[in-house]
Amino acid sequence: MSGEPPDFCVKSPQVPYIKQAMSTYSSHLGDQLIVGALGLAGETGEVVDIIKKARIENREIDRNHLIEELGDVMWYLAVLCDELGVTFEKVQDKNIEKLRLRYSLGG
After folding, report:
1. What is the mean pLDDT of each run of 10 residues along the chain (107 residues)?
2. CA 60, 78, 91, 36 torsion: positive or negative?
3. Any residues with CB less than 8 A from the CB of 4 and at least 6 apart, and which?
4. Domain annotation for the chain: domains and CATH numbers
5. Could you give the CA distance from residue 45 to residue 69 in angstroms, rounded to a whole number?
6. CA angle at 76 for the pair 81 and 90, rounded to the nearest 5°
7. Which of 16, 36, 93, 104 is close enough to 79 for a disulfide, judged by CB 3.0 to 4.6 Å?
8. Which residues contact 44 (CB under 8 A, 6 or more apart)?
9. Alpha-helix residue ranges (DSSP H) falling in 25-62
């Protein structure tokens, strides 16, 4: 599924990011689901670590470092979205739908 996103993705404003992210993905990395999931876990851990260390050491969060790591999180999300053939927007919409049903928030 890697490479060009499905036709239904073309109108999403986030597709260009997914396309750009995938242009930096190398097939030698292997299975996109494994790379995406494990990479996401690792990068999320780095985000947590930045916040944890700042709080423990009672100092300001290094915003630039945190933003860099959030970019890495987004890259791995893009890898997973590409493999699944969905846009960020579709994932976001499904999440809001799930939360509205769970918490009876309506539309």
Report:
1. 44 72 88 95 98 97 97 97 93 93 76
2. negative
3. 19
4. 12-103 (1.10.287)
5. 10
6. 25
7. 36
8. 73
9. 32-56
